[in-house]
């Protein structure tokens, strides 16, 4: 079984699977990042395979493949194909996705997730080679029982602290963290806020997660309060960004997936390079 805590390292990159250019993956590897998390991946894992083919050491984690968009048999077959060529370099992150897409009377997310995991078991995907998108206590516990651990998205260090308490010491805990390389708070909020508001402040599971952390209806209303945005989007110079990322580690995370939100004219690779240098990755 792969030791994901060692393989993923301390910091990785999180990028949207819909917009990521696989051609920059080798550059991220050269910058010293051990891992790349790709959001919204289809069950064929073709983009994942392209990235692994183009790199030599980089671990690719899906963050996530939604159980709403694929079948467990399809995903299991894709997984087997990829790991045969690249053993130890694919962490299969899966999750429910956005329950709003399915009427609640026809679909129960927790039950559906368990049934999907049953299908992965039948398809030969090892429990220790997958992780679950998890926000609330119930799915956090499930991630410890039926996977290598949890990949929480749009969370704070306080969520990380609570998640570690639920998971216990052994399972992987790898939260995503948005960052904006701007030292002016108002400018940083203007860049980071849209990535929080749409669609997440309109989705029940994210709102409930934030409410459990103590954010009020006023914090979640409209464009979100400045307090909420400042907590969810770390900003500042590279050293300040790294200090913000390390707050997750201090709270119990094993790994932090760094999600750069670029401003106008920004080159995300340059931003990742600045963060890598400040973090001592290269």
From TrEMBL:
Pfam families: Bac_luciferase. It comes from Pseudolysinimonas kribbensis. Residues 24-102 form the Luciferase-like domain. InterPro entries: Lucif-like_OxRdatse_MSMEG_4141, Luciferase-like_dom, Luciferase-like_sf. This is LLM class F420-dependent oxidoreductase.
């Amino acid at each position: 079984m792969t030791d994901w805590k060692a393989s993923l390292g301390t910091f990785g990159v999180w990028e949207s699977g819909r917009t990521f250019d696989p051609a920059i993956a080798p550059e991220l590897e050269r910058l010293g990042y051990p891992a790349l998390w790709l959001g919204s991946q289809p069950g064929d894992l073709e983009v994942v395979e392209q990235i692994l083919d183009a790199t030599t050491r980089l671990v690719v984690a899906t963050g996530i493949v939604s159980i709403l968009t694929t079948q467990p048999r399809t995903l299991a077959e894709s997984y087997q194909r990829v790991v045969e060529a690249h053993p130890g370099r694919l962490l299969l992150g899966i999750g429910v996705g956005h329950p709003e897409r399915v009427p609640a009377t026809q679909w129960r997310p927790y039950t559906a997730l368990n049934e999907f995991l049953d299908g992965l078991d039948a398809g030969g995907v090892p429990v220790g080679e997958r992780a679950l998108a998890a926000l609330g206590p119930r799915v956090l516990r499930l991630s410890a029982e039926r996977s290598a651990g949890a990949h929480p998205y749009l969370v704070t260090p306080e969520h990380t602290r609570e998640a570690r308490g639920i998971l216990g010491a052994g399972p992987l805990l790898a939260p995503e963290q948005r960052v904006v390389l701007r030292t002016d708070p108002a400018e940083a909020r203007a860049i980071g806020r849209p990535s929080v508001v749409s669609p997440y402040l309109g989705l029940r599971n994210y709102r409930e997660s934030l409410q459990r952390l103590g954010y009020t209806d006023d914090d979640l209303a409209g464009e979100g309060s400045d307090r909420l945005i400042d907590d969810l989007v770390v900003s500042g110079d590279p050293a300040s960004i790294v200090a913000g990322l390390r707050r997750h580690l201090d709270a119990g995370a094993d790994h932090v997936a760094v999600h750069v939100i670029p401003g106008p004219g920004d080159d995300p690779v340059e931003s990742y390079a600045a963060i890598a240098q400040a973090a001592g990755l290269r």
